[in-house]
Structure formats: structure tokens, C-alpha cells
Amino acid sequence: MSNIKKKHKESWYNNTLSSSIRFIAACSRIKGSLGVNNYSQTQKELKKLYMFALAYYVAIKMNNRNK
After folding, report:
1. How open is the CA angle 57-59-60, to the nearest 5 degrees?
2. Fewer Cβ close by (within 10 Å): the C or N end of the chain?
3. Are the CB atoms for 20 and 57 separated by under 8 Å?
4. pLDDT score, position 22
């Protein structure tokens, strides 16, 4: 039973990792397309989101390393 739970947990971490990587990639693409000259409120919000995604990714990575 615990082996199944462990596998489920690992797959959840892997899925979360890959989705957060995709999210970060999408954010960078949008950030790049907005351009430096077009520094609007949208870009500020996007930067916050991007930093959150990055922090989330690192936290999960560190959590996996400690196990």
C-alpha cells in the first residue's frame, strides 16, 4: 500500500515540476513578446507570476532532494 502511495506522490511531483517548467517557459515567451519598451501594468503582473512560478519550482526541487 505504501509503495503505491509513494509512486503516486512521485508522479504528482513530476507532473507538478513539468507543468511549472512549462508555465515558466510560457511566461518568458510572453515577457519577451511584450518587449522592453512596452513596460505596462500587465508586464509587472506577469513578472510577479514569473517569479512565483520560479520560486514554486525551486521549492519543489529542494523538497524532492531532501527525500
Report:
1. 65
2. N
3. yes
4. 76
Task: Determine the Cα–Cα distance for residues 67 and 54; give it in Å rounded to an integer.
Answer: 21
pTM: 0.40
What's the domain count of the chain? 1
Residue 24's nearest CA partner among 1, 65, 58 is 58
Q: Which residues of the chain have pLDDT under 70?
A: 1-17, 27-28, 30-43, 66-67
Q: How far is CA 10 from the centre of its chain?
A: 17
- Residue 53 structural domain: 2-65
> Do you know the residue count of the chain?
67
